[in-house]
Design brief:
By secondary structure, the protein is an all-alpha fold. The protein has helices spanning 2-9, 13-49, 54-69, 72-87, 93-118, 122-130, 135-165, 177-186, 194-226. The longest helix is centred in the first third of the chain and has 37 residues, at 13-49.
Length: 227
């Protein structure tokens, strides 16, 4: 593919485009890992948040409050530079970026899902308890199937925020689209000027995020029509 791009665009433009496309794969992989890992953790947090047990609600609320209050850039610094230096351990940029983005994603996604769960009428809970179902059974059999239609669109929409959030991981040395682009923009190579590189990067981020944004909008429209 590199030779093909070089043949079409010449050097160094073809090489730059190839390296940016290659780095964009890491952006997508990190986004998917953060989405899945954060989603699993958010599921537990949401369950705790709507639980009848008070200490679970307080613990979940405190977690969400803390990680929503700390900027993602600060989390990346702490995971990639602060904690390794403090405890004298080696943490790769991949690991640090994954931990920071999972924590960030779980805090926000749990709030999205909590809102979806609370959108289901209180009478559904009362009906479940009247049937002598446990809290988990009511949540799994009655509440979640109804809450999905409220939470699906904002969940897909939040994926866009995760992708854009990965652009900050370059600060700890994660070699994604942003880091490779910045290196080329700072390189003294004709054809790699910032006014060329940054628009290319913007187009690539747009191509990744726009389909998700459109899909989220369609899901939201379908959800409104169903209600």
């Amino acid at each position: 593919m590199k030779d093909w791009l070089v043949e079409i665009f010449g050097n160094p433009t073809g090489t730059i485009i190839f390296q940016l496309l290659d780095a964009s794969q890491l952006t997508i992989y990190l986004s998917l890992i953060a989405f899945v890992g954060g989603g699993v953790l958010a599921l537990f947090l949401t369950t705790m948040r709507v639980s009848p047990v008070r200490w679970m609600r307080s613990l979940s609320k405190g977690y969400v409050w803390w990680f929503q209050s700390v900027p993602l850039l600060m989390l990346l610094f702490l995971c990639g530079l602060g904690v390794p230096h403090l405890f004298d351990v080696q943490i790769t940029p991949w690991t640090a970026a994954t931990i920071a983005l999972v924590l960030f994603t779980s805090a926000y996604m749990s709030e999205v899902w909590r809102g979806a769960v609370e959108s289901v009428g209180e009478g559904q809970w009362e009906a479940g308890y009247a049937l002598n179902l446990s809290f988990i059974e009511i949540l799994r059999r009655i509440i979640i199937p109804q809450a999905i239609k409220y939470g699906l669109a904002p969940t897909v929409g939040f994926m866009v925020q995760i992708i854009k959030g990965t652009s900050l991981a370059y600060i700890i040395g994660f070699q994604d689209l942003m880091l490779i682009g910045k290196r080329w923009a700072n390189a003294p190579v004709p054809g790699s000027e910032p006014f060329i590189i940054y628009p290319l990067m913007a187009v690539m981020y747009f191509c990744i995020c726009y389909p998700l944004a459109i899909y989220a909008r369609r899901l939201e429209t379908k959800s409104i029509q169903r209600t």
